[in-house]
């Protein structure tokens, strides 16, 4: 499985903006979750920690959906050269592919 780290070249400026807004929301959500986990560590206020973590997740998920939109070219699962390369018959996790 491949993760798209940046939009495909040739995408429109609207696609790039959507991608970077999505990434910003993802980072913000992750930071909120990290702050919640560290700020409330060892305290009896579990409810406050869970609420702040929920806010982080609610911010992260729309960012994830925005950043993985496939209208920048290709699909969300395609890598940079996936359309020119065939991985048919390859065993996942084995560089040479094939059977044992």
Offer a quick outline of the entry:
The chain is mostly helical. The chain is about 50% helix and about 0% strand.
Sheet-strand content, in percent, reads under 5%
Instruction: Find the structural class using helix and strand composition.
Output: mainly alpha
Helical coverage, percent range: 40-55%
What can be said about the biggest beta sheet? none
Instruction: List the secondary-structure elements in sequence, H or E.
Output: HH
Specify the overall morphology. elongated
Which residues form runs of ≥5 with pLDDT under 50?
A: 74-85
Q: What features would you highlight for this structure?
A:
single chain, 100 residues, 2 helices
Describe this structure in words.
The protein is mainly α. It has a domain at 13-68. The chain contains 2 helices and no strands. α1 packs antiparallel against α2 (46-67). The chain is elongated and about 50 Å long. The two termini are 21 Å apart. The model is unreliable at 74-85 (pLDDT under 50).
Question: Mind sketching the topology for me?
Answer:
Layout: H1 13-39, H2 46-67
Helix pairs in contact: 1-2
